TrEMBL record:
InterPro entries assigned to the protein according to its UniProt record, in alphabetical order: Pyr-dep_his/arg-deCO2ase, Pyr-dep_his/arg-deCO2ase_sand, Pyruvoyl-dep_arg_deCO2ase
Record-given protein name: arginine decarboxylase
Source organism per UniProt: Natrialba asiatica (strain ATCC 700177 / DSM 12278 / JCM 9576 / FERM P-10747 / NBRC 102637 / 172P1)
GO terms, biological process: L-arginine catabolic process
Reaction catalysed by this enzyme: L-arginine + H(+) = agmatine + CO2
Family: Belongs to the PdaD family.
Class of the enzyme per the UniProt entry, highest EC level: lyase
UniProt-recorded Gene Ontology molecular function terms: arginine decarboxylase activity
Keywords carried by this UniProt record: Decarboxylase, Lyase, Pyruvate
EC number: 4.1.1.19
Coiled coil feature spans: none
Pfam families reported for this sequence: PvlArgDC
Cofactor: pyruvate
């Protein structure tokens, strides 16, 4: 595997699914079939916070992700957070995700607590945690999605 990229986005649309698609487009991964995995970072794989994904392969292929995503119908707010930490510089690590119809400080606090709990379950010596948060205000009559993804490597053919 090459690199795990942290990407994030927000989208607004007339339906929940369309707002999710718009948020994926904002993050640069709208043309892939996402496959969610649990939150373990393999050893020796770099993690880069890039904001928007580069080209990761042909449209329609499978893309492996850890996803923090929340959608709301406005008015309101929505936040998503992804935290991660590694054992040493290149050891294995963890992602933890939280997403909700709340403020960004709340999801950041909760994702840090979740990550700490996951670290306590393992006998690894973890480095400092990192956190990416996406937040948006939802206007009345519009669906809004905020998401943060850890994208594992490049896309792969489904068939």
């Amino acid at each position: 595997m090459s690199t795990i990229r942290i990407v994030q986005g927000t989208g607004e649309a007339p339906t929940a699914m369309a707002s999710y698609d718009a948020a994926l487009a904002d993050a640069g991964v709208e043309n892939y079939n996402l496959v969610s995995v649990s939150s373990v970072i393999p050893a020796d794989v770099p993690v880069e916070d890039v904001g928007t994904a580069p080209e990761l392969g042909p449209a329609g292929e499978r893309l492996t992700v850890v996803e923090a995503c929340a959608t709301t119908a406005g008015p309101g707010q929505v936040s998503a957070a992804l935290a991660w930490s590694r054992a040493d510089d290149s050891g294995p690590g963890l992602f933890y995700e939280v997403a909700d119809e709340t403020d960004p400080e709340d999801v950041e606090h909760r994702v840090r607590k979740g990550l700490a709990a996951g670290q306590d379950l393992r006998e690894w010596s973890f480095g400092e945690p990192r956190v990416a948060v996406e937040h948006s205000q939802a206007e009345s009559g519009v669906y809004t999605t905020s998401l943060v993804l850890a994208v594992y490597g490049e896309s792969e053919p489904i068939c």
